[in-house]
Specification:
By secondary structure, this protein is α+β, with helices and mostly antiparallel strands. Helix content is about 40%, strand content about 25%. The protein is built from eight helices and ten strands. Helix 3 packs across helix 7.
């Protein structure tokens, strides 16, 4: 979500550049300035419960489709939450589901962007949370992150997969591979879904602050990027860096997919 926002802002200043050399010069030298001045992230988004009928039709359709497919994999809905503005140009809609047998969680995120070319971005994943704070996540996120990985999260991103069943199976195989299948998972108590999101958001913001990527603006109750954050986030999302990072991400994911045996799975054959 944040990654696409940063790239979108950079694109605003790059659309007029026709020559590749001009494109690179503007992106690498002027992009960080635009990002530093324009990008902010809410210190704590205001989440509210919602019904699918209250969401925009396209968003509601995307979430309803995942409700159906995750339900077939044994997940039950916990909550549908929305926040109109989590960053400068992005609102979020989140479906949280729980598998009461395994205590795994399933998330579907539909980010709404103020962009005519691509107004919605769909991300979905399965997550196992453990008592020591470790999280194992397996899902589909088409966006590249501009920030360093959370060391407490072991994630796998199979961007080419569309099947919820295949993601669920891949997640279970990852737990088996890591020897964590029998470990007790942690799930939020019913009605505590917003508190869980707030804890995650706070931890993420504090970690990026400690890394020097952003700082708190108490006046506006938001995070702004530092110059370090603006430079690194911008450069990670422009060419040729972006293409290289996407290639490495997908190469690593394809290798893991084969290691898990998902290339021979019946569910994977329905992709």
């Amino acid at each position: 979500m944040n990654s696409h926002l940063l790239h979108h802002l950079l694109s605003l200043g790059l659309e007029l550049a026709a020559h590749p050399l001009v494109y690179v010069m503007i992106a690498w030298f002027f992009g960080p300035i635009v990002v530093f001045r324009k990008v902010w992230q809410s210190m704590r988004p205001i989440w509210e419960h919602a019904e699918l009928t209250e969401l925009p039709p396209k968003v509601s359709q995307l979430i309803a489709d995942k409700v159906t497919h995750f339900a077939l994999a044994g997940f039950e809905p916990l909550a549908v939450l929305r926040s109109p503005r989590v960053t400068a140009n992005v609102g979020a809609n989140v479906l949280i589901m729980e598998n009461t047998i395994t205590n795994d969680l399933a998330f579907t995120l539909v980010a709404q962007l103020r962009s005519r070319s691509r107004p919605e971005i769909l991300v979905f994943w399965v997550e196992s949370r453990f008592e020591d704070g470790v999280r194992i996540t397996t899902g589909v996120n088409p966006q590249l992150s501009a920030f360093p990985r959370d060391p407490m999260e072991q994630s796998a991103n199979f961007v080419w997969v569309t099947s919820v069943a295949a993601i669920c199976e891949a997640h279970q195989r990852r737990l088996d591979q890591l020897g964590m299948t029998a470990r007790r998972r942690c799930v939020p108590a019913r009605g505590q879904e917003i508190a869980m999101l707030n804890r995650d958001w706070d931890a993420s913001g504090q970690r990026r602050e400690l890394l020097g990527y952003q700082y708190r603006d108490q006046t506006d109750d938001v995070y702004h990027l530092t110059w370090k954050g603006a430079l690194l986030c911008s450069w990670r999302l422009v060419q040729p860096t972006k293409a290289i990072r996407a290639f490495l991400r997908d190469h690593k994911a394809r290798r893991l997919w084969r290691e898990l045996g998902m290339d021979r799975s019946n569910t994977a054959s329905t992709l």
